[in-house]
């Protein structure tokens, strides 16, 4: 049993360290863009990764992404931003707000006819319902 606990602790530590490296890389990307991602894309990705470790900070990043996506009229990134805002609220345990932002993202994906993004969102919403034991 002790070996299993040690193994799980090591895996968890490696996961956290890897995730933090991605976050650090994205934060540097905001300051000095190098890989061709737009600022709103970087903010969206930061929010996605912060949802697991620091959802409050993820909400700060995603609010900035929403403003930028609205300003640049980037509908796909705006939909992604609403989806990730829902993810951060899910991490905070606020299911009603999470679903309201998932619904906003779904409306945008339908409007721009993004079947891939819509399919992924619906899968994630289904998983969210299943995690809450709402299987119908």
Describe this structure as you would to a colleague.
With 136 residues, this protein is an all-alpha fold. Helix content is 84%, strand content 0%. It has six helices and no strands. Helix 1 runs antiparallel to helix 2 and helix 3 runs antiparallel to helix 4. The radius of gyration is 16 Å and the shape is globular. The N and C termini lie far apart (37 Å). The model has no long low-confidence stretch (mean pLDDT 86).
What is the number of helices? 6
Beta-strand portion reads under 5%
Q: How far apart, in Å, are the first and last alpha carbons?
A: 37 Å
Order of helices and strands: HHHHHH
> Can you count the beta strands?
0
Based on the model shown, name its key terms.
136 residues, mainly alpha, 84% helix, 0% strand
Write the layout of secondary structure elements.
Layout: H1 2-31, H2 39-53, H3 55-72, H4 75-91, H5 95-111, H6 115-131
Provide a brief overview of the structure.
The protein is mostly helical and 136 residues long. It has helices at residues 2-31, 39-53, 55-72, 75-91, 95-111, 115-131.
């Amino acid at each position: 049993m002790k070996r299993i606990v040690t193994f799980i602790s090591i895996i968890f530590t490696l996961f956290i360290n890897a995730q933090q490296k991605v976050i650090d890389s994205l934060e540097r990307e905001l300051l000095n863009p190098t890989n061709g991602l737009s600022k709103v894309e970087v903010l969206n990705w930061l929010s996605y990764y912060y949802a697991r470790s620091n959802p409050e900070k993820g909400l700060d990043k995603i609010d900035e992404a929403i403003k930028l996506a609205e300003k640049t009229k980037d509908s796909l990134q705006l939909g992604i931003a609403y989806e990730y805002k829902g993810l951060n609220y899910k991490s905070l345990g606020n299911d009603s707000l999470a679903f309201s932002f998932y619904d906003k993202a779904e409306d945008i994906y339908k409007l721009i006819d993004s079947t891939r993004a819509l399919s992924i969102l619906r899968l994630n919403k289904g998983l969210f319902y299943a995690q809450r034991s709402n299987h119908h």
